[in-house]
Amino acid sequence: MKKNVSEVVEAVVRIDHTTPTLTLLGENPMSVFYGEVFEEPGYQAEDNFTDDLEVIVTGEIDTNQIGEQKLTYPVQDQAGNKVTKTRTVYVIDKDQPIITLKGGNPLVLEVGTAYEEAGATAEDNVDGDISDQIKITDNIDTSKLGIYQVVYKVEDSSGNQATAIRTIEVVDTIAPEITLNGEEEIIIELGDEYQEAGAQALDNYDGDVSNRIEITGDVDTNRIGTYQITYSVADSSNNTVSITRTIHVTDATPPTDVIFKATSVTTDRVAFTFSAHDLGGIKNYILLRDGEEIALLDGGSTSYTDEELQAGTTYLYELTAVDFSDNASLKVAKEVTTKEKSVVAAPITVEYVDEGGNQLTKVETLTGKIGEVYQTEAKEIEGYELVEMPDNASGEFTEEAQTVTYVYALEEEESILGEPVIVEHVDEEGTELLPPEELIGNIGDSYQTHPSEIAGYELLQNPDNATGEFTDEAQTVIYVYTPIESDVEGTIIIDYVNEAGESIAGRETQTGIVGEVYQTEPKAIEGYQLIDTPDNATGEFTEEPQIVVYVYALMEEEPTLGAPVIVKYMDEAGEELIPSEELTGKLGESYQTEAIEIGGYEVLKTPDNATGEFTSEAQTVIYIYTSVESDVEGTVIIEYVDETGQSIANRETQTGVVGEAYETEPKIIEGYELVETQGNATGEFTEEPQTVTYVYALEEEEPILGAPVTVKYVDEAGEELIPSVVLKGNMGESYQTEAIELGGYDVVQTPDNASGTFTEEAQTVTYVYAPKKVEVPLEGTIMIEYVNEEGQSLVSRETRIGVVGEAYTTEAKAIKGYQLIEIPENATGTFTEEMQTVTYVYTLEKREEPKETEIPELIEIILDEPPVEVFPGITVTVKDTQTIIQLPNDLPAGTLLQVLTAEVKEQKDLKQAGEVYDFLFTFPEEQGDYSGTFILTMGVDEAGDQAALYHYQEAWQRIGGTLSGNTITATVSDFSMYGVFMEEVLETEPPVKEEPEEKEPKQEPKGQETEGKKPAKEPKEEKPAEEEATILPATATNQYNWLIAGIVLMITGSSIWLIRRKRKYKEDHQ
Predict the structure, then answer these.
(1) Which one-letter DSSP state was computed for residue 144?
(2) N or C, fewer C-beta in 10 Å, the chain?
């Protein structure tokens, strides 16, 4: 049975009220650059029910538009829940504008020209053309050289700035202009003086640069020619310019002082001498005989002989001198008559003289007839040998006298060795104190001996034969000594001997206390060199005498080069067949020559001197050849020379038929190596001789290591102060050592072998030091004065201080209106303990007589300026000071006055209280010493009542004076240095209580007056200035008065204080 059943359905409805979640990716806000593509970063939307959400972005970003732009992101879920977000995008401009300069950059401007701004353009990617916004600044000054900048700046609407710079260099490229003073081309007569006129130079920038002109070139007015003087100048920019002046030195003056003499007249000839003077020199002499030219002589000729004349005939000779400018002198005439013919010839004198021209034998006279032959011979003269044979030893008799002179020299005698001289040193008993010394020498040579220092002894007797000559008998020189009391002393005997042990220099001795150090040194002995230094050259004194022996060897003399030997190869007619050969060698060395083969010739005569020795005179060796019949032959000469062209081996030749081949080879020459071949070493014979020259150079020897040189630095006891140094080098190389600075020590002995050469023997160089002596250096003083001839100072004296013994140098000053006339001998010197005075003396410069001028009543002098002329009876003031000088009426005319600032050192017991000046009066020379009275007023700075005028004469001397306000006046007569001072109160004096400053009379400042107040002290106007100036201030009285016044014021003040205190006490207790 169907039952009715009902169902209940339950429905659940979910409602969405939640909005979606929207996230913008990327930045927000964000920026994008102008013109770039904008890429939307995206977003992310989520919902709690729906996954498929759609976001529709609205808006657009235009990157070509600057500014803020927005994008909107709306989203809605299915339930209608919405959310919207916005992204802000800023389009920005980051690019700077671009500035383009118009015109050149960099730009070069000539100094002084105007700068014209070419301008610039500016383009911006956003704003476009913004040229009108460019700002231009510069620092250009075209009147001055330098590098300048023009700065261009612009900013776009986004604030992007751009800068451009144009560089401007202001330069000077224009060279100065030179203008010659005087003519550009000048003609000067030979011998006249050339006066340099100079030039001027102006530059567009530097102005007058005449002082920079460099003048080059010389003019020799004693020599004909064309000369150029060049004037060059450069400005500060090194722009250079040159200009040239041409000077022609000409000769328009004919020769002068023509002398024409006939010095010898015979039957057929006349001999003349002649001379002339011309600055340009003599080119020719023209000699006429009877109007016809017989000789055109060179200007260097001084004599001429006219021959083949007729005997007993009169001729008229005329001489004309011609210079190199063809200026001819006046003719000088000389009439000469030849002698009549004679049969008897003039005599011939035969002389025999020594090299000094002294006659050795009787003069001989030969006579004969003209044309006869004469013959003379040398004589044998005892003790002499012939050294010069006369050219006219034989000849013919002539009309003129002749002299034949044979010259002799003393024969050199063989030196004979004398007997030795023995030197002994003995005591009074004859006992030897030192080993005897043996001296040797040739007979006639002198010897000299000396006593020796012998420890514990003194010389008693000096022998008569201490000096003398070597003879053929032995001699003994005996020095006798006597003992003396002293510390135990030792003796060192120093001998200088040759390799045979023979003494070559005087023996020496040293004495010293036993145990002390001694040091000996070798001697420099002419002609000898040291070869052995003994081990005991240094050591200690001992009781026994010690002998130190230095051994020497004879120096090898440098060989003397002899005169060359010329080898000639000639035919019978005297013609050279091949070039001559020159041999060289040292004096005494032998030479050897050989005949050589010459094509087509054979030797006809071999000379006697084909072999021989080189001498001091040149020699010629001549081989004579004769031609032979043969095929035509050629010759090849082969020479072997060094790099200077000197032959080092005998020349060789090869001969052969013309056209045949020849071949040469270099020689092996000991000590030389081949460096060059000149000519064809191989080839064919030709008719003309050919020369092949092999050139050699000396082989370089392998250096040999020398023995070491040890350098030691020791004290006086021989102890090394620092480790020694060992030097090494090759034999013959030089070494150099130096003393070095060692703290606390000074060098006291520098060795003789401080520098030298490395040898095969070891050497020691020893520097000896001693401890430094610390001394306080003494100081000396130099006082320098600059005075006139009367000794009066012209400027302030100066002083210099330096260490005694050190050098000083002083110099004269340039003083306006004066010239230096005397430089002292001690202008330079060394400081000494005593003070020295260096005095430069001046005199007034000469000047024109002054025109008569009106004498002023008042003259103002400027301090430290040159002297000025002052006049009698006038008043002189010193500018910017309070100093006044009233001059006397009898002051000499022409007196000069100079006032100088004086530097005052601190004075004992004196304190400067006012002006101090040096007054320099210069009186005329004819006046001599002038003495007159002057009234001097000077300014006072402080302590007016205690100040006084002082005068300096080696020390400050008190004069006094009358105080008036802030000046002090006194009459003085001796002018030099004056000043205002006050005495300083010594600390030991009892102190004087001073009243408060307001109680003292108040001193008014200079040049000011206070209305209604009188000065603290008024001048006594009723007295004349002269009378007032002579009153000396009562300084002590014034001090006493002030003391009394102070005491009175103290008492009065104390009384007033007590009265007031009592009154106050009563008031307090009423």
Answers:
(1) S
(2) N
